[in-house]
Specification:
Elements: H1 2-19, H2 26-32, H3 42-57, H4 63-74, H5 86-103, E1 107-108, E2 111-112, H6 114-118, H7 120-132, H8 135-139, H9 147-176, H10 184-210, H11 215-241, H12 252-256, H13 261-269, H14 274-287, H15 292-304, H16 306-326, H17 338-355
Antiparallel strand pairs: 1-2
Length: 356
Amino acid sequence: MDQEYTRRIEKIEAVLDRWLPTRPGTAWAEQVFPGLEGPIREELLAALINPGRDLLSRGGKRWRPLLMTLVCESLGGGDAALPLTPLVEFCHNASLIHDDIEDNSDERRGRPAAHILFGVDTAINGGCFLYFLPLSCIDAWGTAVPAEQKARIYACWGEYIRKLHLGQAMDIHWHRNFGSLPGLDEYLVMCRFKTGCLARLAAVLGAATAGPGFEAEGERLGKAAENFGVGFQILDDVKNLTSGIPGKKRGDDVVEGKKSLPVLLYLYRQPERRDFTARCFAAARAGGAGAPEVEALIGELEAAGTLEEAAEQGRALIKEAGEEFAAPPAVRPAPGDPGAAGEARKLLAGLAELLG
């Protein structure tokens, strides 16, 4: 099964490399900037794409574009979603570049963050460009694709990218001000927007590219994918406070003042510990991940059982998503190899197990 995932990821990487090349040349510039007048030196094009290119070169799980292609395959669409995979992967990486600036993070995927390497101004501009670059993929998406279908893809992309930024705004508001404590339901809404919406976009686009008549399946799988994304975010937050996330420092979320699910569960169960938690956040912000208060807070969360409780909620959401992914579609898949569609559905369900 791992080989099947690898084979698909290699196809995805080829598409990403095409739209974000190591050396952008004239042909790339003409496609991305149609009607461009006058020569643009290659080093100027490189300055635009280097933050995104560098981040993508560091790796990443690529589960969002993989989910997108598997949804399309499971509905009989074959590789039809492949040309549009940058719509989810580039936007995800753009959000990481901006997130590191907003959180003043030093590292990402084991190396200095983009704003450390390239400067804040170049990183902001490169991140913004990475949001909009994949729209060129829609423009180039086959002459046989009806204009109405392209318009729906544009509208869908716009809706979910707006939600992504709303989720980020909620997260920033809460981690900047310790006195502003979100409710557990508000926290889940934030996760659905900040992390779940790109996963949902991946599933909706996968269904849309499979062919007409799969709107209901897109909604069903999109909701499951959103749960998958929320579960993934919860487990990621737990890992930050336990084993640590590769390429980041254990307890970075405490430094950022992040109101993650384990922290919220702890504070709502033991409101008398709010002052202690506030002191830990303040000390971590001043002293970094090495401040002793970081480990003190993590120790309290572990003793209170909220780390494991949050992890259980994350795993439950991913398990629920996997069951939906494994369920046969309510409508007949598009004409094609039914065996291939069934195999893709197994891989889709396996993706939940692999990342959960």
